[in-house]
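Course assignment 3, question 2. Fill in each field.
Student: A.L.
Task: Predict the tertiary structure for the chain below.
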Amino acid sequence: MVKSQGRLQFFVFFLCLLLPMISLADVPTWQIVPNESHLTFTATQNNAPVTGEFKKFSGDIHFDPDQLNASHVKITVDVNSISDPYHQLSDTLITPDWFDTKDFPKAVFQSNHFTKTGDKTYQAEGTLTLRNITLPITLSFTQEQYTPTQARIKGTATLKRTPFHVGQGEWSDTKAVKDEVTINFEITAVKK
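Answer field:
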């Protein structure tokens, strides 16, 4: 009888150790659908909005709204894929004073801390690495669609460009080009 209780206690203890791993394994992995996903930004120059888009980005996404504690994402942006309607903005932004895409071709957002803020709304607290500088950032997003095989989210974040050393020299003055930049994203993903 004592041996049986000992085995039972060991089994329960072993099960408790396994539960976190089991729940981690259950979090779905998602793959971004590029032609249905967009990453844009809006800055302000001379009190007028200036917009652009990053055409290429990928994600390592493990997300389940019922398992936020086990969810985590890593989004990698090809900064060289920056585009705007007239190409004048993107030609300037790839230079050393701005994104310096020759030395810093990627930007990376990572998060493993998600909070539900409403019925289908969430916040992701994480970090953004840009020009080899990593700073905290919070994204807000809405779950527009979520099925066992497909998900669609829409969200936004606001950041300041100067802490990342984006806009140097004459551009470090925030009178002509404001410090705050708004990032908007729409991501469609399918379950792997």
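Instructor remarks: Helices lie at 2-26, 88-93. The two ends are 47 Å apart (CA to CA).
Grade: pending
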